[in-house]
Amino acid sequence: MTWLGLDNKVVVVTGGAGGIGRACLAAFHEAGAKVVALDRNPDTANTLMAEMDPTGQTALAYDCDIGQPESVAMAASFVEENLGGADVVINNAGILRPAPLSEVTDDDWNDLLNINLSGSLRVAKAFCPQMVAKGKGAIVQIASIAGSHPQPASGAYSASKAAALMMVRQLAYEWGPKGIRTNSISPGLVMTPLSAAFYADAKVKEARENMVPSRRIGDPDDMANTAVFLASDRAGYINGQDITIDGGLSQALMGLVPRPGY
Ligand SMILES: NC(=O)c1ccc[n+]([C@@H]2O[C@H](COP(=O)([O-])OP(=O)(O)OC[C@H]3O[C@@H](n4cnc5c(N)ncnc54)[C@H](O)[C@@H]3O)[C@@H](O)[C@H]2O)c1
Question: 20 to 30 A from 116, CA-CA: which of 12, 71, 105, 199?
Fold first, then answer.
């Protein structure tokens, strides 16, 4: 067995065409796993997977909208038929609909919760029987520090991530006896297509970097490395936990408080 024990495991990553998703796919593939990118952007997902494995044996893509129950059910069947079922699910797909709660529309609120929260549960439920059939499994939810820390214009997003964090703990409790471990990662600031607009202005980027004790913006690989560990046998007794990966940003609150004389 290799150190991580992920050789030939089947790993499904939602939102696999995006920044953190593609980093997860690459990291699991490098660790010896067979990977499947589920995304509603199939062109990019197909291109990425073909680059990873031109033979199409160990890296596959499937057009899936996690907001649609039938689409998720079809994706689960695809993984079962082509790779014999999933061992690991990375619930990563997510969207932003920036607006203060006082202005968020019902449609935006419902769309966002349908993808960031309900979509994650839908995916977990669809792949649960496959992991049970294999005797064990692991789910890693990509949450956010926004789920624990309010921020401007982030109402629906923050609420969805807070609920996802609780869903992870609930799944850990309910599915632990089935051999499925469920944990989450709460990224801080990460440079991806989702957040690219925040970094278009170099001054904003620098100001953000200076707020982080580690003095840099996170890289998708920072998240992927932890996802690989949490899904691996090395984390075999970790269940229902959240790991914050933010370079220390969430510990920097007291640095904002003026302290004359110090
Ligand atoms: N980038 C950050 O700073 C940051 C910080 C904290 C948390 N996160 C979380 O990390 C996760 C990944 O974010 P990212 O920054 O890589 O975003 P991204 O926009 O680069 O990638 C998201 C991917 O999800 C896909 N997607 C969206 N809705 C989908 C749906 N209904 N069905 C299937 N696929 C769908 C998109 O097509 C895209 O490929 C998200 O859950 C996000 O909330 C990101």
Answer: 199
